[in-house]
Amino acid sequence: MGPIGEGYWIVSSIIGGRSRKSSRFGSDFGYAVLRYVTLFILPGESVSSSVPERLLSEGASAFNTWRANQPDAVLDLKGVDLSGVQLEDINFSGCDLAGALFAVTELAGANFSGADLAGTTFTGADLSRCDFSDAHMSGAELSYATLTLADMTGAQLGGARMTESVLHGCIFSRAHLEGAILRRAILTGANLSGADLSGADLTGAVLDGAILPISLATRKA
Question: Cβ–Cβ contacts within 10 Å for residue 19, how many?
């Protein structure tokens, strides 16, 4: 590994709060001031979960500030447990959050656009006004969650579960909802134009005022 690669390895270890011995410098390191990170992380480098998790404990503002200074960092947060945490308006766009836990988490206004949310759990979470456009959410658990005015444009939601979720005013334009479970979901005023609902279960769903795809509108008529 060259000097730049070694520099990145050291910094990623430091800001994760873990004390490791550097093969290059031969000494132990603890927690480092975050402003130094910008000198080492390279565009497109994958950042281990220990880095952002440390920041997440400080809240959405600290995390968003760090991300603004690392626009090219690829964040790996697979399987992270953030259940019950307050993270309103956080920027998770493009993050790998596959299998993460957000049960009963406060996430109103969060940005998940383009994120990998496959198998992620949002049970009972507040996802009002969240941006999920073009997110990969296959098999995600969204039952009993509040998604009022959320943007799901182009999202991949095949097999996702949204039982009794509040989806009032949600935008599902061009979303893929094949095999999704929407039993007793509140879809009043939702926009489902161009959405693929093949095999979706809408048993007991409330669709008053919703804009439906042609296939579903014809079936209801």
Answer: 11
Residues 110-160: tens digit of each pLDDT: 999 999 999 999 999 999 999 999 999 999 999 999 999 999 999 999 999
Instruction: Using a cut of 0.85, tell me whether the model's pTM lies above it.
Output: no
Instruction: Give the domain ranges of the chain.
Output: 1-74, 77-221
**CA-derived radius of gyration, the chain:** 20
The number of beta carbons lying within 10 Å of the beta carbon of residue 69 is 13
The string of DSSP letters for 105-145 reads: -B-TT-B-TT-B-TT-B-TT-B-TT-B-TT-B-TT-B-TT-
CATH class of the domain defined by 77-221: mainly beta
Of the ranges 36-40, 72-76, 173-177, which one carries the lowest mean pLDDT score? 36-40
Please classify residue 21 by burial: count the beta carbons closer than 10 Å to its beta carbon, then call 0-12 exposed, 13-18 middle and 19+ buried. exposed
